[in-house]
From TrEMBL:
Ranges for domain 3-hydroxyacyl-CoA dehydrogenase C-terminal: 220-288
The keyword Transmembrane is assigned to this record: yes
The name this protein goes by in its record: 3-hydroxyacyl-CoA dehydrogenase NAD binding domain-containing protein
3-hydroxyacyl-CoA dehydrogenase NAD binding domain ranges (all copies): 15-137, 162-217
Length: 373
């Protein structure tokens, strides 16, 4: 499907992207390639136009839309002020620096100029929506004028309260125009309709993106927490001389990478338990897992019987027959989601793994070919 196809979704959306760094430019490509929305971009950098002209074509490679065509057709507009950028937007999506103070100041400016029904998205890597708007109603910085009802009755506190119900974290994995994951992380005040809209918006794209709702605010969300914890252990292993950086990367590429490209961590480890699924996996090598978990006192203390500081307290309040320890919960949820391994599932797993491994081998061959040429 090309970017000029009239069947592309979201023709009535007017999206403003604030911040055109690596994430912003990638999201710009995603919206241009897979929607028919009008896109306005704003970034205070003085070379914004040259930056977009030189970098965006790299992200549009393989698609029949050029930067010049996008601007001429009205699909892409480069704004020279934040006020003009957000004034007609139906969606404002920010990709600014990862500082709470920056986010708060940015939303303060956006709320002064955007419509009170405009959807607010943040592509932050770890700053929760509740923190981004914390205390704004008390700062007195707003202009206090009404912009949605026309009678000037909307107060600054009203605007902040409304924004709190509309702000949603839309956290990508870089680069978002290729990586399928989008973590949707509402605050306790985010309206459920905003989450549903974002799910529908990204699911409608022909890009294969997979929006997944994170049900509680937590630092780093889910994907980054998992990857950063792995990164911490990798750095520790390198620091201790157990493995080199290059060796560690190759170990991941030759094992976890292909595995997790085919099946997620719980489903894949379920195969290791044979007919008993993930319960069998923990029964078979639980002590080896415990040895690793207990090897570093910096790690969360969770023993292989399933007890942790939190689950011990929960076990006294759980209903009869309900999983109470973390281990019981993991087993129950894994069995419910994936079932136990079947011959058909094993065949599908192996087919997927072989495809990924062959793709890696082809990538290495091409890399060698380029270096030798």
């Amino acid at each position: 499907m090309s970017s000029s196809d009239p069947q592309l979704p979201h023709p009535n959306e007017r999206i403003t992207l604030i911040g055109l760094g690596a994430i912003g430019i990638s999201f710009l490509a995603l919206h241009l390639r897979y929607t028919s929305a009008q896109i306005t971009v704003y970034d205070p950098r003085p070379d914004l136009e040259d930056h977009i002209t030189s970098i965006l074509p790299l992200y549009l490679s393989g698609h029949n839309l050029t930067v010049a065509e996008a601007r001429k057709s009205g699909r892409l507009h480069i704004s020279n002020s934040l006020e003009s950028a957000v004034s007609r937007a139906t969606i404002v999506q920010e990709q600014g620096p990862e500082r709470v103070e920056f986010k708060q100041n940015l939303w303060r400016q956006v709320l002064n100029h955007a419509d009170t029904k405009c959807r607010l998205w943040s592509s932050t890597s770890g700053i929760e929506a509740s923190r981004q708007l914390a205390g704004l109603e008390r700062d007195g910085e707003g202009d206090g004028d009404g912009d949605g009802d026309g009678d000037g009755s909307t107060t600054w506190a009203d605007k902040v309260s409304s924004a709190r119900s509309r702000l949603l974290i839309v956290h990508p994995f870089n680069p978002p125009h290729i990586m399928p994951l989008l973590e949707l992380v509402p605050s306790p005040w985010t309206d459920e309709a905003e989450v549903s809209f974002a799910q529908t918006y990204f699911s409608a794209l022909a890009s294969g993106h997979r929006p997944i709702v994170v049900h509680k605010e937590i630092k780093g969300f889910v994907a980054n927490r998992l990857s950063f914890i792995l990164l911490r252990e990798a750095c520790h292993l390198v620091d201790q001389g157990v493995v080199s950086v290059q060796e560690c990367d190759e170990i991941i590429r030759a094992s976890l990478g292909p595995r997790w490209a085919v099946k997620g961590i719980f489903e894949m480890y379920g195969f290791g338990g044979g007919n008993a699924g993930i319960k069998g996996f923990f029964n078979n090598i639980g002590h080896s897992i415990a040895d690793v978990w207990e090897d570093d006192p910096r790690h969360v203390q969770m023993n292989i019987e399933g007890r942790s500081a939190s689950s011990t307290a929960e076990a006294t309040t759980g209903g009869q027959g309900q999983p109470s320890t973390w281990l019981e919960k993991v087993i129950a949820q894994s069995d419910e989601a994936f079932g136990l391994p079947t011959p058909q599932a094993i065949t599908a797993r192996d087919r997927g793994l072989n495809m990924v491994v062959k793709a890696q081998a082809e990538m290495q061959r091409l890399d060698r070919q380029e270096k030798e040429s």
